Amino acid sequence: xxxxxxxxxxxxxxxxxxxxxxxxxxxxxxxxxxxxxxxxxxxxxxxxxxxxxxxxxxxxxxxxxxxxxxxxxxxxxxxxxxxxxxxxxxxxxxxxxxxxxxxxxxxxxxxxxxxxxxxxxxxxxxxxxxxxxxxxxxxxxxxxxxxxxxxxxxxxxxxxxxxxxxxxxxxxxxxxxxxxxxxxxxxxxxxxxxxxxxxxxxxxxxxx
Length: 208
Prior knowledge:
Layout: H1 8-14, H2 16-23, H3 30-37, E1 45-49, H4 57-63, E2 67-72, H5 75-84, E3 89-92, E4 104-109, H6 118-130, E5 132-142, E6 147-153, E7 156-162, H7 165-174, E8 177-186, E9 192-199
Parallel strand pairs: 1-2, 1-4, 2-3, 4-5
Antiparallel strand pairs: 5-9, 6-7, 8-9
């Protein structure tokens, strides 16, 4: 029998439409997405890892002038994204082994990598680095502290995990990213813990 950590993609495949209904189209994370976009050039390329149905984040990125490539392990969610948000490129793939041979101005992993085991999360920083153009911005969510947690989704256990803050900072530095902003359990964003970072120093830290 598979562990909850091994069943995450399976759950999002089996309950894709239930997830879409639960997620809704309200962009509760708009403040953070705007902070991310402010660090990108005009008409940026953005890689959305764990893009789900493409709404609301993928659609908002397109509406603000981004060229979007979305990746998700759930073929069912990708098919919904292709139908609802046809202006982007949607790819069914496991983010842990992603090799697109492309570099992006921005990389977003919103409420996605925290479904991975600690070891797989550590491996994601090489994926981020591999797909980051010089000066690329990176935004992702994590847990507030080290450990595993089980939520519930359609009556089944949904796995979450987190590294601790020091390890995230060390991994970002190791892979060439500097932390720009970090808030633990942001009360203005559903108490999510958010990281915003930027690759190397070849891009200005603040846009005018």
